[in-house]
């Protein structure tokens, strides 16, 4: 039991050293890196080596999930198809993300959650041009999965009722906050082990084999910590988990997973995190002497909260938890718990367990997305007016209408290489002003004011000088 994970880690290290080092790690950070930094171009070897390395790591006892490597493999296939086509970087990104979403949908039978994961982690936009292909790919994979693995939720749960009571809501809120703390702790522990390996005077090719020692030793004390462990998740969600299983997951499984993944082997984070979060919830149910269905309920709440906090994807966590169990009565408590967990980790950690990997490679990625502030500003609000004598009747070759958004003007200026753009009135088709880079900066200033200026609007009276009383 000790030797086999070491041999598996050695094979993974050799594949990474002489094949591609991109097969190391979770899988999802590598997909994000390809999208943001490499024009959505993935090496063809990844499509072959990533699933092989993950199969070796998990098959030799690695306590990982298969979802990360499958998502990366699906993304690699989508990228390879796009590289054979005459497409833009944005379209190539869409195909990469479509392949990744299809991989997750096929793995967990969660087509809607796969779409949300793509939006929250990979797409960096919400547009029909990207959402429609991604949704189509996810739905297609979900349909084909039925013919291969059958219908029904991935994990069965006992019937749960009365979840609308205030006690469940408050309990879910508190459990979600607790899982936020656990999520932050798990992320820091995993990266602490990664830092430990970084200080070793040994080539990184040998690190997965050293990580295999931790897997083997942990497996001696807790054999159920080896492998993906879907059977453990199923037992937690049945409400029949023993205290030995719960403690084993919280201690042995957590250490085995963090130590081995910190060594740079190939494996996913989703299934282990779900198991650990479910064990925390099951522990709450066990300590409170809750009945079987209530223990299963708290395990589900813990599982979703762990996903929301660690990955920073609260919407995905809510839908994912519902799709893998079909436990719709848990919707409202689950929503409160996932949001609470996300809030706690957002306050404690600037990055999620996925984006922290990119930060360590020298790239900063924010966990917040918003509408371009220039999309909310109209050109005529920031343009510089021309006097009547200075106005020209015939517009130049490049111009923008006064009722268009400042974002459109900025894109045209960037495309044409202009620092100043002529503004035309749409109704009269005459030049009415100009817009410059400084004018666009004034448009950006409005978003800063919206974020920082605090006003009491009751009895608010603007002054003629533009101030307020």
Describe, in plain words, how this protein is organized in 3D:
By secondary structure, the protein is mainly alpha-helical. It folds into three domains: 147 residues, no CATH class; 194 residues, Clc chloride channel; 80 residues, CBS domain Like, CATH 3.90.1280. The chain contains 19 helices and four strands. The chain has a four-stranded mixed beta sheet with strand order 1-4-3-2. The longest helix is centred in the middle third of the chain and has 33 residues. It is globular and about 85 Å long.
Largest beta sheet: strand ordering: 1-4-3-2
CATH class of the largest domain: Mainly Alpha
Major sheet details: 4 strands, mixed
Number of domains: 3
CATH 2nd-level architecture of the largest domain? Orthogonal Bundle
The CATH topology label of the largest domain is Clc chloride channel
Helix amount: 55-70%
Residue-averaged pLDDT, rounded?
87
Tally of alpha and pi helices: 19
């Amino acid at each position: 039991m000790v030797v086999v994970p070491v041999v598996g880690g050695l094979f993974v290290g050799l594949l990474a050293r002489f094949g591609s080092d991109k097969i190391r790690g979770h899988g999802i950070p590598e997909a994000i890196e390809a999208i943001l930094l490499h024009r959505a171009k993935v090496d063809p070897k990844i499509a072959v080596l990533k699933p092989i390395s993950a199969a070796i790591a998990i098959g030799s006892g690695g306590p990982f999930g298969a979802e990360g490597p499958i998502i990366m493999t699906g993304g690699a296939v989508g990228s390879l198809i796009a590289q054979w086509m005459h497409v833009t970087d944005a379209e190539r990104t869409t195909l990469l993300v479509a392949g990744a979403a299809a991989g997750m949908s096929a793995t967990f039978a969660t087509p809607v959650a796969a779409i949300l994961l793509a939006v929250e982690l990979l797409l960096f936009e919400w547009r029909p041009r990207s959402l429609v292909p991604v949704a189509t790919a996810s739905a297609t994979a979900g349909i084909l999965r039925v013919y291969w693995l059958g219908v029904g939720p991935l994990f069965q749960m006992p019937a749960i009722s009365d979840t609308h009571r205030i006690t469940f809501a408050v309990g879910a809120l508190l459990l979600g906050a607790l899982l936020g703390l656990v999520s932050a702790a798990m992320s820091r522990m995993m990266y602490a082990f990664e830092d430990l390996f970084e200080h070793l005077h040994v080539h990184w090719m040998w690190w997965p084999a050293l990580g295999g020692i931790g897997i083997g030793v942990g497996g001696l004390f807790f054999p159920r910590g080896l492998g993906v462990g879907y059977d453990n998740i199923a037992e937690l969600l049945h409400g029949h988990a023993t205290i030995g299983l719960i403690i084993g997951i919280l201690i042995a499984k957590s250490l085995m997973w963090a130590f081995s993944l910190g060594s740079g082997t190939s494996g996913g984070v989703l299934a282990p995190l779900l198991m650990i979060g479910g064990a925390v919830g099951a522990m709450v149910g066990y300590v409170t002497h809750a009945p079987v269905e209530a223990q299963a309920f708290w395990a589900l709440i813990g599982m979703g909260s762990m996903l929301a906090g660690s990955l920073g994807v609260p919407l995905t966590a809510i839908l994912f938890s519902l799709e893998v169990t079909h436990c719709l009565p848990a919707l409202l408590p689950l929503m409160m718990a996932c949001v609470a967990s996300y809030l706690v980790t957002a306050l404690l950690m600037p990055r999620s367990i996925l984006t922290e990997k990119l930060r360590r490679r020298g790239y900063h990625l924010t966990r917040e997305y918003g509408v371009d502030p220039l999309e909310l500003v109209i050109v005529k609000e920031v343009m510089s007016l021309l006097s009547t004598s200075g106005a020209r009747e015939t517009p130049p070759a490049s111009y923008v209408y006064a009722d268009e958004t400042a974002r459109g003007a900025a894109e045209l200026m960037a495309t044409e290489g202009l620092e100043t753009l002529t503004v035309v009135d749409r109704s009269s088709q005459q030049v009415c002003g100009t817009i410059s880079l400084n004018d666009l900066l004034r448009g950006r200033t409005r978003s800063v004011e919206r974020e920082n200026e605090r006003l009491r609007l009751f009895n608010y009276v603007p002054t003629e000088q533009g101030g307020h009383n």
